[in-house]
TrEMBL record:
GO molecular function term, any single one: uroporphyrinogen-III synthase activity
Protein name according to UniProt: Uroporphyrinogen-III synthase
The organism's taxonomic lineage, starting at the top: Bacteria, Bacillati, Actinomycetota, Actinomycetes, Micrococcales
Positions of transmembrane segments: none
The protein's enzyme class: lyase
């Protein structure tokens, strides 16, 4: 059985490794692209302030926030008094790979904005409460507001934006100048035309040749705009993604509570 994920091959991690370990063929169908903002003035200004020591903390809410700062030239160098936090292990891994920073703060109970708010320390009396929060342009205000409520002076900047690669019902090339990830190799991608042919060939076998793992709500919207061959089985990571699929008329056959190979196999009944 093949399984395709609606994200970029460069985002491969433990999930894909686990799926390959149980014998699944892994392919990718990226329908969105993460890009630097068209105007990076605000982000460059924040990086300058970060290097001057204007912030006590910098918090990374995703691996893409790390990639965005690195694409603009940040190499991980920080003033001695500035600490680093991340939302979870995946972001920590990308931070280590790109900057060499090995021991960031992260929440222990839940890798989410809510987990960060719950566990992040309050500013000490007399401490400079400046905190840099680079995020997606589409990020909700929950984390910024939660940190502000505990006394931090939060500077939130848009580090990147997620844009659809589906235009007029077809996949298009992205923007190589602003793209955060390297261009994927063709052999890693799911060929939709071949998939449709496989489904036609196997229409009487009652076998699903490919399962599509939908990784985000933005990817769910992209799939709906793209259109899919009949009989493609969809699995959604998280309830928000599942709700978007249902709203767009392509409901998932299963919802994963976590992005793991065990969760995928359980959803597949294996």
């Amino acid at each position: 059985m093949r399984i395709a994920l609606t994200r970029d091959p460069a985002q491969t991690g433990p999930l894909e490794a686990g799926l390959r370990a149980v014998g699944l063929q892994v392919r990718f169908l990226p329908v969105t692209e993460q890009r630097l903002p068209e105007d990076t003035t605000e982000l460059n200004t924040a990086l300058g302030r970060l290097s001057r020591g204007d912030f006590s903390w910098v918090l990374f809410t995703s691996a893409n926030t790390v990639r965005a700062l690195v694409k603009l030239g940040w190499d991980g160098t920080l003033p001695a008094q500035t600490r680093v936090g991340v939302v979870g292990p995946g972001t920590a891994r990308v931070l280590r790979t790109h900057t060499g920073i090995t021991d960031p703060w992260m929440p222990q109970a839940e890798s989410s904005a809510a987990g960060m708010i719950q566990e992040f320390p309050e500013p000490s009396p007399g401490q400079d409460g400046g905190l840099l929060l680079p995020q997606s342009a589409q990020a909700r205000s929950e984390l910024r507001e939660g940190l502000s409520d505990t006394g931090w002076q939060v500077t939130r900047v848009s580090a990147y934006e997620t844009s659809s690669l589906v235009v007029g019902g077809v996949l298009v090339a992205g923007d190589p100048q602003r793209r955060l990830l390297p261009q994927p190799a063709g052999e890693d991608l799911l060929d939709l035309d071949q998939l449709a042919a496989d489904l036609r060939r196997d229409r009487l076998s009652h076998v699903d040749p490919t399962v599509l793992l939908v990784t985000s709500s933005s990817a769910a919207d992209g799939l709906a705009d793209l259109g899919l061959p009949e009989r493609v089985r969809l699995l959604a990571i998280g309830r928000p993604t599942a709700k978007t699929l249902a709203r767009r008329g392509i409901p998932a056959s299963g919802v994963l509570s976590e992005p793991s190979a065990d969760a995928v196999m359980a959803a597949l009944g294996r």
